[in-house]
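FAQ: What does the model actually see?

It sees only this:
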Amino acid sequence: MLSPYAPVRILAFAQSLDRGGVERALVRLARGWIAAGHRVMLVTGPSRGPAPAIPDGVEVIDTDGSYLGMARALPGAAKRLQADIVFCPGNHYSSAAAWLHARLGKDCPPIVAKVSNRLDRDDQYFPIAQGYRAWLRAHRAFVDHMVAMTPAMAEETMVMTGLDASRVSVIANPPGLAGTGAPTPPIAGSDYLIGIGRLAPQKRWDRAIAALADVARRDTKLMILGEGEARGELEDQVATLGLHDRVHLPGYATDPRPALVSARALVLTSDFEGVPGVLQEALSVGTPVVATDSSVAIREIVADPSHGSVVPTGDARALVAALDHWLAPDRPRPDPVPERGHDSVERYLRLFEELVLERRLKRA
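And it is asked to produce this:
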């Protein structure tokens, strides 16, 4: 590893910090890197909704909040910081990493890209699917190293990108931190299901709402903690199904754990995911999960039938059956499962230092 007297200069970026789990994980990592004595520069735009606070010590390059504005700022930021490493926090941002590599050429620092969502997408149709697969193969040209959050995701990454195993690592996201705001209370006096995540098309909360209308226990309620562009459509669906008294959409929660602890099950109904931290958080407090098979990592997390149920994506009957199973009055809750990723900050730093040293040796 590099000398502790030569801190690694890390350049990271995000369009804004209110987009979701990718950005929250980036903030947690940045906090750890700063605490370990390294420099972090973050290129990002203003948040338009609830977002994690930028840790003290992080140098910020402000942008206009657009993806293009963020990408345009990266070459200048890399030169200003004299960056040793560029960290791309998720799939959504890889085109900006490609732009940076193209602009800087041989002067571009090593780029480490995290795989934040499923790569083998079955929700895409020709010709989009063909173009997407070609794009993934192109990552070999501009990404020096990719980080997957589970072994199954690492295998998928190598298959979809063609990267050699020496250029792919497995590092979990750091565990979620308890929020600093007021905790979200449970729904008093009732059995309820909980969903946690952005109100975005990818999350397909409409499936959870539709399933609630068909579960056997008609007094069951559903609370979805999150905010996003799909709120209007979800509220219309609730009105159409006559579920005003059973579906609660209170918005973003800075501390959802009290409500999560008391829920009968956590529901995740996405089309595609990466490694959903909410599943690990639910299991860490003994709350079972019902999730669609939206990532190769889902079955790694829900590794035992006592932890929850994984249902085929888009299978409405299977989703209702799984919810009925966990809503049964005598159904035991799983034993708490410790969250992964407590050594993530250190493992990323070791990877960064190895890549920096390798680059210096090549140039020497």
